[in-house]
Amino acid sequence: MTSHVAPAGHHDGMDILHPFRLVYRGLVYLANSPRTLILSYLAFILIAGGIYSFFEKVGFGDSIWWAVVTASTVGYGDISPKSWQARLLAALLISVMVLLVIPLITAHFASKLIVDNDAFRHEEQEELKANLNRVRELTELLAAKEGLIAPGSEARPAAPSDR
User: DSSP strand E in the chain: where?
Assistant: First the structure.
């Protein structure tokens, strides 16, 4: 009779952190896709506007206006929720915008501003390393041919420890 032992850090049954991991993956996806982020923002505004219209019994145009003003945290005050459901929606809308959407948009644009366009791409780095190794090999062969060093006697420097 053998017993099943779950790997370290895993438990049999439902993983409690699974929903949080899914949310995290979704946020990373949104952060790396500005088109999806903006479409999600627009969908969120439309959905919030529709829900607000339902609970507050106001026109869809006014509800969209309310959602945009609330999401931007401007809050003109010309339209404000009266029902507890719409107030809860406002709190959710403000929280999501302030804690997620605005920081993700800001981070995306900030990362575009600090990108070093002169930096080598990964493929270029790999090509440079290969070329440098070939130059090193040829230099060693030439040095051995000229009798300056015995082939393979000079040890190559170790790679940097951060890689």
Answer: none
Ranges of each domain in the chain = 27-113, 121-151
Contacts of 108 (CB under 8 A, 6+ apart): 31, 34, 37
Q: Each residue of 132-144: pLDDT tens digit?
A: 999 999 998 888 8
C-alpha 148/C-alpha 19 separation (Å) is 65
Task: Name the stretches of the chain with pLDDT < 70.
Answer: 1-14, 150-163
Q: What are phi and psi of 127, to 5 degrees?
A: -65, -40
Burial annotation 62-75 (CB, 10 A radius, 16+ → b, else e): ebbbbbebbbeeee
CA 125 to chain centre: 24
Q: How far is CA 66 from CA 56, 96, 119, in A?
A: 11, 15, 45
Q: Domain 27-113 is of which CATH architecture? A: Orthogonal Bundle (1.10)
> What pTM, to 2 d.p., does this model score?
0.55
Closest CA to 80 of 59, 52, 103: 52
> Other C-beta atoms within 10 Å of 114: how many?
6
